[in-house]
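In practice, a research group might receive sequence data for several interacting partners and want a quick structural hypothesis before committing to experiments. The following worked case mirrors that situation: the sequences arrive first, and a predicted assembly follows.
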Amino acid sequence: MIKPVKGFSKLSKEEKVSWVVSSFFKDNANAESIIKRYWNNDNVLQQLHDEFIENTISNYYLPFGIAPNFLINGNLFAIPMAIEESSVVAAASKAAKFWLDRGGFKAEVISTTKIGQVHFMYAGDKSKLNDFFTAVKSMLISDSKSITKNMEKRGGGIKSIELVDKTSVLDNYYQLHCKFETLDAMGANFINSCLEQFAKTFKREANSFNDFSEDERDIEIVMSILSNYVPDCIVRAEVSCPVSELNEDEGVSPNEFAEKFIRAVQIAQVEPYRAVTHNKGIMNGIDAVVLATGNDFRAVEAGVHAYAARNGSYSSLTHASIENGIFKFWIELPLALGTVGGLTNLHPLVKLALEMLEKPSAKELMQIIAVAGLAQNFGALRSLTTTGIQKGHMKMHLMNILNQMGATADEKLQIATYFEGKTVVHSDVVAKFNELRVV
Ligand code: MEV
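A structural hypothesis for the assembly, expressed as tokens:
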């Protein structure tokens, strides 16, 4: 077992690498060389990455791919995706091409409200607390002016502050439940700064509120923080076409395709085990674009899954119908995103991704990302209900195995040809590879 290390954060980067290498690796030279191989030759760029987080020792690459041909509200996009999972970009591109020939995707933002809360404990008379809140509410807003004035100039800011009584679920627990409009910013810093100011004002004013007893003045502020659950920051994306146009899958009639597809969506609506995998496939598309555009995928994931369970049972984010011979497939989900601030102004690849998307507003990015999720789900359900998922996956799986074994381009071609139409099993690939090497 290693010993605890003191003052690690104060060590230089070289010293941190030395500590890691000597503490965890027998083959020091190899470990050090792997860590340093990922350093960027451009010192300025490397320093930028070093300073994103603490204790950086190297960079961790993800592939940055492009899914072209997305027609969204009449505009054509090539969507950047950062993801390590094979087949995701290919599936997105294939779905984009499919719908390009059928009118493309339509998307609209339904709402953009974000939420934050000051959680506090108060053991006194409820009506006095209500009176205090009424008295102090305008001061909560006016004390935050220095934080909100720029956001307000652009049309955003605090939308509402409510006192919420939560004592039925936890003794003495109340909240200031606050709504915000943060425009093109994800808004975490803005919201948290406002909330911390509300908490300060609330506490300070409680201390001198005449109607409170000495004990009632002693409100305990527990914490002030935004919520990543944003059920009023919703985007909807959809595709539709006559059922007769669902005609690209060999051996399946358009009607059969549509009906089986709808059954697959219905299963994800009623069966949580399936819904989780169904939505995971959607998040393959969503997270990849969220990451490529410098947004917080953990926040998006948390909010989306909470939304998927909002009716008490975890369910599909997508829906499908056939009405009057028209197939319709749509997604509705919460996405709190930013296209200014944070990494969006700092990370060169993120800037490039946003430029490729024609510098979208946060609302436009919500639409693009919802479309990426819908496309991904279309691709997954299309494969699952026709050929099965493994056919597409196996090509990439085979390449990953061959790369691991260090196969040459010629060996890859020969082995890929051999496995066409066959199931790719790891041991069979190794056997075939060894057979080629022996010859
Ligand atoms: C794999 O990453 C995603 C899928 O499992 C999604 C799905 O089953 O719908 C293919």
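Before designing any experiment, note the following. The mean pLDDT is 96. Strands lie at 64-72, 75-82, 106-109, 114-121, 157-165, 173-181, 220-227, 234-242, 318-323, 326-334.
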